[in-house]
Amino acid sequence: MDILRIATAGSVDDGKSTLIGRLLYETNSITKDKIEALETASKRKGLDFLDLSLLTDGLIAEREQGITIDVAHIYFSTPSRKYIIADTPGHVEYTRNMVTGASNAKVSLILVDARQGMVEQTARHLSIAAMLRIPKVIICVNKMDLVQYQESTFEEIKASLTELVKQTTFEGQEISFLPISSLYGQNITKKAEQMPWFTGNTLLGELEAFEYAETLAHAPARFPVQFVVRPMTEAYHDFRGYAGKISSGTFRVGDAIRVLPTGQESTIATIEKFEDKLSEAKAGDSVVITLSTDIDISRGNTIVLASEANAPQLKDFSAQVCWLDHQALTPGKTYLLQHGINITKAKISQITERLDVVAQTATEGVDSLKLNEIGRIALRTAQPISADVYANNPSNGAFILIDEFSNSTVGVGFVQ
Amino acid sequence: MNKLNDKIGHFPRQLEDESIYIMREVAAQFERPALLFSGGKDSITLVRLAQKAFYPGKIPFPLVHIDTGHNFPETIEFRDRLAKETGAELIVRYVQDSIDQGKAKEESGKYASRNVLQTVTLLDTIEEFKFDACIGGARRDEEKARAKERIFSVRDDFGQWDAKRQRPELFDMLNGRIAVGENVRVFPISNWTELDVWNYIKEENMEIPSIYFSHKRQVIERDGMLWADSEHLNKEADEIPFEATVRFRTVGDMTCTAAVASEATEIDVIIEEILSAEISERGARIDDKRSEAAMEKRKQQGYF
């Protein structure tokens, strides 16, 4: 059974929370006591229908204001898949939460209000989905009930977005358009009786059919060492294992390996998962690897295949960055850069440009990047990092920037 | 399309890999981590994951149990056995001691419970041992405020959670850097659902306390639910204990965890019951029903 991670996006009041509530409701994922609690809460708000958005707006401030502030994680499953939805905020000022929620997603649901069509947030979210290399985007034209379920409205919105989609998308990204009504459950899990003109799949149908090409196992092999296991017990006196989660590629017993950044070489003696000894392990597996020779390896080192002549070692590089903190990014400042589990100091030498993700233009010569802004930076790290170009190997190409003094995560970067 | 039984026995293995990764990050990033152990199925799952994460080494942090004094005896017995079997260090601290020291005050009335009080003992224990990370078995599917919690959740000096100041968590990168006095609550099974936990217990053939399975017990009926009769429960005159065949879906204190009538003696039947249940897991916890925002408020005060 696999897991499909989805992120929702859209502007305020596009009905994201209602859409998710609807998905849960129609896949029998809500227990009776929760539905009763919903009925009570809906009545208290003076509504004569079930307000499904109340299922996800969890914080006190959110219920007061009727908006989503923070990312909520919601779960449902079908017999074939477990789904994890990151329900992210629509407000511009919470774009960072949106990036956070979408960072693990393989599908992005972007909602558009049928009455308004494309708005600034639509462009922003399409750009972010492309920046994060999310392989599938479903643009849900919601509230079709408020435009009399007209095909022409849907087609107009679709046409108005074509140019933007062309500008933002990357090769291999799937983009589809879906007319829906979350409030009335049209085209969510059931075909829309009100829209016989639409012949495509329902939303759940699209999600169930989506096959995310498992390219990760074929990407270059990367094993960041998280923890050195040294039991020093009688039974395992000389045992020295390297624990970690393979971030991309495949490792097999007998493979010749190299350790970065030290450059030492050895061969894989065993790959272990608890009491099991495996012959190979691939991206996503948490394993313990032992080597045939004793070499010095510590946390933060990366094991790669010795056959790969030019595994990356970056010290001076450029990256796209999304700023997540109230205190702006200013060139010359030193941050801690965390790539996977490895931390080193990094100095931002220059902000090359700021991107206007709505107009799809870049401004050069800027001296800061503020909260929620996206730009390109040049940086230099104290120690080399074994990161790939994000577009080539997303699981090993992203990093976060941490403020040394507040310890906050202040930015996310993508190696270019 | 969703036939209930089709969901039984399908545990997404990816979840285990992700949780083991989190366990190892805790051991690597913190100096004095601890695993908060309640004896419930979620914390038993945590112990299993910790065992796997460091095998063939031992679990490199202690199991900490905040004993309210209102626990089911079966849970306590199970706890002691598990600690022995895994070789993990076990630390127990008692809510009764906090009450005796005047730091916490026993609640009164028929709904009196020590659930809120345990926060006091927990914070004292964190201070006593200078724990910088506490691993807990909370899941995001349990409750709405939990759905917003991070995997590494930073708490201030008073153990408080500030929903608006949460650090962004991107990809699988966990930032556990903290200032002196702060500590982190870690939730390795955040992304598991109740069903995932049960399917995992089944697949791994794990032992769990006997009260999860159907048994005969003296209970009283209150608010349409069944409560285990015990010396800790403040009964009203018309609440007369009777014998029933029940099991518990979640294991908290005897005073705040209701039983469900059930004949399920095997794990498959329990999973079937969960799938068709009309009451959600926390619906049987009176502590959450105090108000719609009950959980968020308790978390702000340092509850885990």
UniProtKB/TrEMBL annotation, chain A:
Q: Which InterPro entries match?
A: CysN_GTP-bd, CysN_II, CysN_NoDQ_III, EFTu-like_2, G_TR_CS, GTP-eEF1A_C, P-loop_NTPase, SO4_adenylTrfase_lsu
CDD domains named in the record: CysN_ATPS, CysN_NodQ_II, CysN_NoDQ_III
Q: Which UniProt keywords apply?
A: ATP-binding, GTP-binding, Nucleotide-binding, Nucleotidyltransferase, Transferase
Tree of life domain = Bacteria
Annotated ranges, domain Tr-type G: 1-217
Q: What is its EC number?
A: 2.7.7.4
Q: Which residues form a coiled coil?
A: none
The record's section on NCBIfam families has:
CysN
Name by which UniProt lists this protein = sulfate adenylyltransferase
From TrEMBL, chain B:
Which source organism does the UniProt entry give?
Aquirufa echingensis
- What PANTHER family does the record tag this protein with? SULFATE ADENYLYLTRANSFERASE SUBUNIT 2
Which residue range or ranges hold the Phosphoadenosine phosphosulphate reductase domain?
33-258
The name this protein goes by in its record: Sulfate adenylyltransferase subunit 2
Q: Does the keyword Transferase apply?
A: yes
Cell division among the record's keywords? no
The entry's family comment says: Belongs to the PAPS reductase family. CysD subfamily.
> Which InterPro entries does the entry link to?
PAPS_reduct_dom, Rossmann-like_a/b/a_fold, SO4_adenylTrfase_ssu, Sulfate_adenylyltrnsfr_sub2
**Its encoding gene is what?**
cysD
**What's the top EC group for this one?**
transferase
